[in-house]
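Students often ask what a 'structure token' actually looks like in practice. Rather than answer in the abstract, let us consider asparaginase, a protein of 333 residues. Its sequence is given first.
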Amino acid sequence: MPQGHMVLKPGTGGKYHQPGKSEALKPGKMLGSLLNMVPELKAFASLDLRVAFNMDSSNVGPKQWVQLARILDANRDDYDAFLIAHGTDTLSYTASALSLMLAGFKKPIVVTGSQLPLALPRSDARQNLLDSLCCATAAFSPPHVHLQEVALCFGGRLMRGNRSQKTNSSAYQAFDSPNYPYLAQMGVDVSWNSRALLNVDTVYRPRFNLDPRVIRVPIIPGSDPRVMYGDVAARGVKGMVLEAFGVGNMPDRAETGWLPWLREQRKKGMLVYLGSQCAVGPLHPELYKSGSAALKLGVESGPQMTPECAVVKLMLCLAYRDLPLGMPLAGEL
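Now compare that with the structural description of the same chain:
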């Protein structure tokens, strides 16, 4: 059994609280309540609980990601693994942020949540917690799998955190990993995909700065970005996730405005990542005239990142200008 396992509860939007009860619960009482409702958790590890903050996950952003990253970093040497209970709306953003900010952490950080509150009869919270803790402590029981990354566990699936997306608002299997294999699947047994696990061979270097001045821009047929978005650089935007068609195509006629607009924004120092509106498949913008033109303007592309991960990585690269956008940090590319 692991010597210590920290459960961080950054705010779940009420999913792990009893309906009608105050969210302003003290850590000791919350841990006692959690262990009373899910006593099987004690079979996996000795647990400590820390409530990082209480808020609806739709309000969680860069400030809270930095707060969580600092807590994890400060406790890295004191615990064998970490479990974060979090609301589902921004869960993939948080998982992506922690994976990039704490690249090289080399200990399991498993994030999870639930579609229904823990106290409800059909809640998925109980099973998600047990599955998450089982995966986080897998190194201490056969087959002794050493998880060394930020992973998202939900609906019987363990996914790389920065490859995950919330794809269903009401199903128990609310998250998927469209462009990367599952790390594990939970049935009667845990079926591990060892070849998909991140092999960490880099020096741990935490980064606690993020520049949130980033925007997502989907290309819409018939829209002129000069009219629809205008001079976003002049309004303080520093980074852009440009969501193109297919493998990286976009309108190339001058009257549509996309390439002239990109040229103007790049001249003003805008950092641009070219992604796709497709959830699955590779990026090859060089195959098209417009994509090649965008690359010549200094727009960066490469292996497909999820939009959630791309946004966070732009925030990180804007804060650390010596960090190339195309350099893999935590298996996100």
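One point worth highlighting: Residues 3 and 46 are 6 Å apart (CA to CA). Ask yourself how you might have guessed this from the sequence alone, and why that guess would often be unreliable.
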